[in-house]
C-alpha cells in the first residue's frame, strides 16, 4: 500500500490562494486506508481551508469529491463534467494519482495536498511501516521474504555489516538486524544454503527504514517505540 501524509495547511493554502472555485479530489484507495486522502480527509482539509480563508476575509468556494482511485482512468470519468466548474483542483492522491489527474485535465491547475512517503503496511491504526522501495529487482525469493533494501539500513545484499551486535542494527539499536532475521527465516525453512549465494553490490544512497505515525496517534505508540517493539 502507498503511504502518504497531508501537507501542512499553510502550504496547501498558498498553492490555491489565487483561485475562487476549487475542487478537492480524494482517493478512496490507499490514501483512504492510510488516513491521508479519503472522503473524511477531504472534508477535514476543506473545513480547515475555509476557516483559514475566513480569517483573511476571503471566501473561495472549496468543494470536495472522492473517486475510487485516481490512478485508474475509469474512475476519473465522473470528473469529466465536474472540473469545468472550477478554477483549480487539489489532489489528495499519491504522487502517481496526482500526475494521472493532471494528465487527464491538462488545462486545469492541479495541486498536491499530500506528500507520498513510501510503499508500506499497516502496523496498527495510524502507524505505517515501509516495506518496499520499488527497486525494480526483487530478491525476496532468496532472502526468505525479508527485504534487504528496506529492512537493512545499509542495503547489504550478502550478510550483516561489522557493526551489527546481538542481532540488532548498528544504525538503530532498537531494531533487529535484517540479516539476522533473514538467517533465522531461511534456517527455519530449511533453505540456509541459499544465504551463501553472492549478489553484486548496488549503488544505493541515503537508505533508511521509513516509518510514519500520525500525530494524533504518536502518544499511543511512544511506549512501544521505547520498548523497541516497532519491528
DSSP summary: helix tally? 7
Q: How many separate domains?
A: 2
Average predicted local confidence, pLDDT:
88
Gap between N and C termini, in Å?
A: 18 Å
Globally, the shape reads elongated
Proportion of residues in helical segments: 25-40%
CATH topology of the largest domain: Rossmann fold
How would you spell out the order of helices and strands? EHEHHEEHEEEHHEH
User: Which strand order spans the largest sheet, edge to edge or round the barrel?
Assistant: 1-6-7-8
Whole-angstrom Rg: 22 Å
- In CATH, the architecture of the largest domain is 3-Layer(aba) Sandwich
Q: How can the largest sheet be summarized?
A: 4 strands, antiparallel
Give a structural overview.
- The protein is an alpha/beta fold and 231 residues long.
- It has two domains: 2-118, Response regulator (Rossmann fold), CATH 3.40.50.2300; 119-217, no CATH class.
- The chain contains seven helices and eight strands; from the N terminus they run E-H-E-H-H-E-E-H-E-E-E-H-H-E-H.
- Strand 6 and strand 7 form a beta hairpin.
- The mean pLDDT is 88.
Task: Describe the structure concisely for a colleague.
Helices cover 27% and strands 20% of the residues.
What brief labels describe this structure?
8 strands; 20% strand; Rossmann fold; alpha/beta; 7 helices; 231 residues; 2 domains; 4-stranded parallel sheet; elongated; single chain; 4-stranded antiparallel sheet
Amino acid at each position: 500500500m502507498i503511504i502518504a501524509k497531508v501537507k501542512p495547511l499553510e502550504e496547501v493554502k498558498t498553492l490555491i490562494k489565487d483561485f475562487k472555485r476549487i475542487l478537492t479530489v480524494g482517493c478512496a484507495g490507499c490514501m483512504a486506508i492510510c488516513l491521508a486522502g479519503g472522503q473524511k480527509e477531504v472534508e477535514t482539509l476543506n473545513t480547515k481551508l475555509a476557516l483559514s480563508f475566513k480569517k483573511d476575509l476571503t471566501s473561495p468556494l472549496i468543494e470536495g469529491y472522492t473517486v475510487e482511485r485516481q490512478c485508474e482512468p475509469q474512475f476519473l470519468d465522473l470528473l469529466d463534467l465536474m472540473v469545468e466548474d472550477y478554477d483549480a483542483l487539489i489532489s489528495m492522491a499519491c504522487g502517481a494519482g496526482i500526475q494521472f489527474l493532471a494528465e487527464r485535465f491538462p488545462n486545469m491547475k492541479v495541486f498536491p495536498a499530500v506528500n507520498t512517503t513510501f510503499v508500506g503496511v499497516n502496523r496498527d491504526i495510524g502507524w505505517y511501516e515501509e516495506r518496499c522501495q520499488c527497486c525494480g529487482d526483487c530478491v525476496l525469493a532468496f532472502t526468505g521474504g525479508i527485504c534487504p533494501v528496506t529492512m537493512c539500513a545499509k542495503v547489504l545484499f550478502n550478510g550483516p555489516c561489522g557493526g551489527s551486535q546481538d542481532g540488532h542494527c548498528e544504525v538503530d539499536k532498537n531494531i533487529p538486524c535484517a540479516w539476522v532475521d533473514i538467517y533465522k527465516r531461511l534456517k527455519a525453512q530449511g533453505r540456509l544454503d541459499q544465504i551463501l549465494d553472492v549478489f553484486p553490490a548496488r549503488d544505493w544512497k541515503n537508505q533508511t527504514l521509513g516509518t510514519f505515525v500520525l500525530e494524533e496517534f504518536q502518544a499511543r505508540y511512544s511506549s512501544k517505540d521505547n520498548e523497541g517493539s516497532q519491528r
